[in-house]
Amino acid sequence: MTALAEASPSLKRRTRTIGGRGGPALVVAFVAVAVWWAGAVVADSAVVPTPDQSLRSLVTELAQPSFRASVFDTLRVLVQSYLSAAVVGAVVGALLGVRPFWSRVALPLAYAVNTVPKVTLFPIFFVFLGLGNLSCGSFAFFSGVLPMFLIAAEAARGVPQAQLKLAASLRVGDLRVLPMVVWPAVMPAVAAGLRLTFGFTFLGLIVAEMFAGSSGLGQQLLRNVALARMEYIAGEIVLIALLALVPFLLLTWLERRISDRFGPRPAPRGSRP
Amino acid sequence: MMNTDADTTSRPAGAAPPGAAHVEATGVVRAFGPVQALGAVDLRLQAGEFVSVVGPSGCGKSTLLEIVGGLQVPDAGTVEVGGEKLAGPRERTAIVFQDSACLPWRTVLDNVAFPLEAARVPRKERRARAQELLGVVGLAEFAGHHPHQLSGGMRQRVAIARALITEPDLILADEPFGALDEQTRILMAFELLAVVERLSASVLFITHSIQEAVLLSDRVLVMSARPGRILDEIVLDLPRPRAQNTLALPEAAAAVDRIWTTLRTEASASMGVPR
Amino acid sequence: MRAGRRGAPGYLRLDRSRAGGLPAWAWRTIIVAAALGAVELTARFALDGSYELVPITTMAERAAELLVDPGFLTQHLLWSSVSVLVSFTAAAVIGIALGYLMHGHPWWNRALRPYLSVFYAVPIFALYPLLVVVFGTGLMPILLIATAFSAVVVTTHASLGFASVPQNVDKLATAVRTSRSQYVRLVLFPAALPDIIAGARLGFAYSITAVLASEFILSTRGVGHFISTAYAGFMSVDMYAGIFLVAAFSLVLIAVVDRAAAHLDWRRR
Questions:
Q1: Do residue B105 and residue A261 have CB atoms under 8 angstroms apart?
Q2: Which of A33, A252, C59, C87 could tie C240 with a disulfide, CB 3.0–4.6 Å?
Q3: Domain regions of chain A by residue span
Q4: Does residue C117 belong to any structural domain of this protein?
């Protein structure tokens, strides 16, 4: 639901036109850093590190093999869980979406499961899978797969009836209609879904790592909380933000390419809030 | 505009001999749940005949067309096309949809070639055919464009070229020009007429414009408000080729008046106005 | 080309009212019952009393006990509810105000838009440990993180809603010379209402998620903390009862919000 509303095309369009004129956004970034810096200087304590201290401690940490291992751990699990969530969600969603009756049966259930805060369920992952990358990755997968599934299912439901009638009048079979009409028609929505799913998956992974405290960047964060090393925490947050931004920008670019290539995606038929 | 003189369209082989019943629908009934969409309807189209159906909105015109196209199965009644009982969409029937049904991710050329791709015609051959037909509808230089780069009229021309590429002997057009402005739709109507006359295909043409129906058709069927039934049949013995001034002929004017009188009560009924 | 196939292909069947003789709601019931039954039976017989899974009935019983346990109510449930309510209310106010600001001032729109679109790509919970060090493990860090997490989705939807006034309606409003306040009251807010409601509904769900997640990670009270300590102490009945409660609460609350929203949303009338 979340994802569907956020992926709305009009919103996307506006983001695009405004993203080009970045002046005001840069001002905001500049002011934010300035406020952080000024606040740190005024507080003048170990509690609030300056941006400069934070970056220096990040560099120090990155020099340590154990820290680098944590970063790579997180990245590896992130890539695995994200890719599987995206593929499974998109394929299963599209297969369900082209079946009107089964969509009506299953989608309300999926929406209901989606309203339950997913974090509540993650102790279950640890109970069954133990603390570690397997459970963290499974939880990250779970956080991403449901939104992707819902986006793909709604998009497949929204394939214009006229295009399906055209295919039917040309006697295109039940299977051939997928590559000829359905896949291309859902591509733009799936591209938007890929971008949103990434955020959900990464969030799920970091939260799980913090809860489990056994590996990855989340564990590094918690370790530094115990040691009250603020400049390290701040540096790690900057690193996490950078790790999120790079794929986000790539996926935004991909989404733009796809919607240029496959045309604007059709509005979902029964677009629910 | 459409290059109607070009001899680039090949004539379909083996069109049914004129005079043979090309479409024969008898007692066709269709309901959607509790809603009776189509009362018992009989419909006959001679080969090469251009028949229009006019009626108030929601009267089941499109349902009738989709039944003849094999997209819907009637609850009762039989449909025969070309002497065979209809079982699903037929190879030599082409449908032109109201909103052009262009696939936005395909180029104009690939949209026109789509039916041949569905029929597994090799890529090179189908593209050559599509390029040829784009010439016929005057869009040759737009082959590489995408549908959203075209105007509504041009998109509808793509749809017509796409319908012609299979060399159909029956064309079903469901308000094909409904979304166009008045001038464009008149021009497009003449272009369509010129093309189907050369193909000698039969046409079932759904429209809500009385003038359009009279201008184009050999015969006009008037349908009632839901459940749709045929109320009146007007045979138009107007000279061909048709032109803008055809409508000024007394016979055409009389036909327009007769259809409008029949439709008026039906249209009011479908708007909820008491008769 | 295959010929002589019977009727139109399956993907065109607009819809059907039943499959296998059963309507959609019956299938839904069967699926839910089968899922619950599978959990119940697995827990009861296959795992047979191990701590990994407890039967649904046990979860429900323990959840009912917790609901009348004053310790649980005041220590955890009340604490979490207050966190959710306060952070959601703050998020709604901030979100609508920011959306209005962005609608009225293009500069702010351009300044904030990129951050709104990137916000949920960055796992903002990474900030939570930092807030804990600064503010201690009290209500404050939870409220801050939950408000921020929820306000952004409200903002996005509100600004979308304010921008959704149809041009013709704008022209009409000018033609009948509405004052600024009349315009806001009679045109802008009613037009934006469905989007604001959709945003607020999501914001509410986001508040719950954020509060629980923070309570899981580091806290001294709250339902999230209760579940987390039960997990750490291998008290799986308590853990599953907590999860059961949260799931039931959020399903019921969202259903209530949906009902209310359906009355307010002119697009769904």
A1: yes
A2: C59
A3: 2-7+65-262
A4: yes
Smallest Cβ–Cβ distance between B118 and the set A160, A172, A187 belongs to A172
In a domain, C4, yes or no: no
pLDDT at B196: 81
Chain B adjacent subunits, 3+ CB pairs under 8 A:
A, C
Assess whether C98 and C34 both reside in one domain: no
pLDDT digits (tens, 9 = 90+) for B16-31: 444 445 898 988 998 8
User: What 8-state DSSP symbol labels residue B11?
Assistant: P
Task: Give the ipTM of the model, two decimals please.
Answer: 0.82
Same domain, C27 and C127: no
Please report which helix (H) or strand (E) contains residue C62, including its range: helix C56-67
* Angstrom distances, CA of residue B116 to CA of B92, B100, B203, C110, C213: 12, 17, 21, 48, 55
- Residues B108, B120: Cα–Cα separation, whole Å: 19
Neighbours of chain A (3+ CB pairs under 8 A): B, C
Are B146 and B104 in contact by the 8 Å Cβ rule? The answer is: yes
Q: Residue B270: its pLDDT value, please?
A: 64
A-contacting residues in C 187-226 (Cβ below 8 Å): 194-195, 197-199, 201-202, 205-206, 208-209, 212-213, 216-218, 224
Specify whether the CB–CB gap between B72 and B65 falls below 8 A. no
pTM above 0.90, yes or no: no
**Enclosing domain of residue C186:** 59-268
- Per-residue pLDDT at B113 exceeds 80: yes
For residue A87, how many other CB atoms are within 10 A of its CB?
12
Question: Would you write out chain C's pLDDT as a tens digit for each of its 269 residues?
Answer: 333 345 666 677 555 677 777 888 889 999 999 999 998 888 888 877 677 888 888 899 999 999 888 888 888 999 999 999 999 999 999 999 999 999 888 888 888 888 888 888 888 888 888 888 888 888 899 999 999 999 999 999 999 899 888 877 887 877 778 788 888 888 888 888 888 988 998 899 899 999 998 998 888 888 999 998 998 888 888 999 999 999 998 889 888 888 887 777 776 65
Q: Which residue of C has its CA nearest to A25?
A: C111
CA of B8 vs chain A CAs: smallest distance (Å)? 23
Nearest CA-CA distance, residue C8 and chain B, Å: 5
C-alpha neighbours within 13 Å on the C-beta side of residue B216: 34
Homologous superfamily of A2-7+65-262 in CATH?
Answer: MetI-like (1.10.3720.10)
What pLDDT score does B272 carry?
A: 64
A199 Cβ under 8 Å from any chain C Cβ: yes
For the ranges A10-19, B168-177, B245-254, the lowest mean pLDDT is seen at A10-19
* Cβ(B74)–Cβ(B86) below 8 Å: no
Residue C138 structure tokens: 């009290």
Of A165, A180, A261, the CB nearest to B101: A165
Which residues on A lie below 8 Å from C227 (Cβ)? 120, 123
In terms of domains, do C32 and C163 share one? no
Q: Are B176 and B98 in contact (CB under 8 A)?
A: yes
The CATH number of residue C133's host domain is 1.10.3720.10
Quick one: fold of B47-71+87-92+170-275? Rossmann fold (3.40.50)
Q: How far apart are CA B147 and CA B112, in angstroms?
A: 11
Q: What are phi and psi of B134, to 5 degrees?
A: -60, -35
